[in-house]
Amino acid sequence: MNAPLRARELQPPAPERPLKVLHLIDNLGMGGAEAWLIELLRHWRDAGGTVRTDILATGGRPGVLDDEATALGAAIHYLPFGRRSLATFVAGFRRILREGGYDALHNHQDHASGWHYLAGAGLLPPVRVTHVHNPAYQIRNNYGVSLGRRMTGRVGKALVARYATHIVGTSREAITAFGFDAPAFARTPKAPLYCGIDPRAFVADDQVRRAVRAEFGWPEDAALVLFAGRFDVSPDLGHAQNHKNSGFATQVAIDCARADERVRFVFAGPFSSATPILRARVEAAGVGDRIVFAGVRRDIGRLMGAASVLFFPSRAEGLGMVAVEAQAAGAPVLASSGVPRECVVVPDLVTFLDLDAEPAVWRETLLRLAHAPRADALDANRRVAASPFAIDHSARMLAELYRSGAKP
Known about the structure:
six-stranded parallel sheet, 13 strands
């Protein structure tokens, strides 16, 4: 016969104490990791503060999302990390760790995270997460300029092996590309941790689509192609730091605008020194009224909902969250082969082309998708909401990771 339950066993479990986490990131600019941090802050605030978050901006400068982050309860520390400021960084970082009482350190700066761990040795929290977001080739370019920089990268990677308790990536492909499947990391748990979005932010109706076109002075029936991402530092496609392929995207946009007067393009993202050069090319082609360089936009969900297609020809991506956002809006995606297939939630909406495909192939495929009948946007949105890319799922997985090694 089973023994009766004792009174204390009938009591609900005590609520878990809030976790306290410090994120290390260059700054809160407009990017996938930064947008995800804002979504996490909003989610955990609405969940009653289950995770308390501070941010250390190692670029030492404010970002466009700082005000939103602080309004959501985050404390932001500005502490430049570099050779000239190393002593100041070490002293400041150790002070922050002593005073913060953190359960976890979440570092978004790939191999540099190892140097950060070394700077905080003896004061590090029990959970130390190295999170890779960017394409691995960027690290080779960043650290490959000189022997000294290459050694800095190699030592940083070795320090990750020594100090990190977890390695996660925006895709499983990114973890492999960074070399974290090597024997030195065999004992470190590794897994993809997808950045999350609130799919509801990407639901749009015909009124929103008309309003976006009206904003730019375009016809209601214009086929709107969206490019969402920063402009590369050079318009040269062969430049070592060409990432988003903005120069190539601009040329394809010019070709499309010449071939089809119904198509319009919006380039949404931070400008660079190459932007005036690309703008001049658009004007010289006589299509400046149909191709807009809109700069940084805070209403990317609205633009996604209004878009006929997302144009995503990046040379490489850690994952490419804009592709997921477009699917949440029910918009088709034309992506390069450099974008990991892990971004696909609604297969019928995503088309890949090889980076070496002729520009004419990109043009014809883009025009075909831009004029295709729109998919069932609500069904696509529901599928994204049920995927690992939904913020509810992403935040839950992250909190479980933090709590796995936190002190009771």
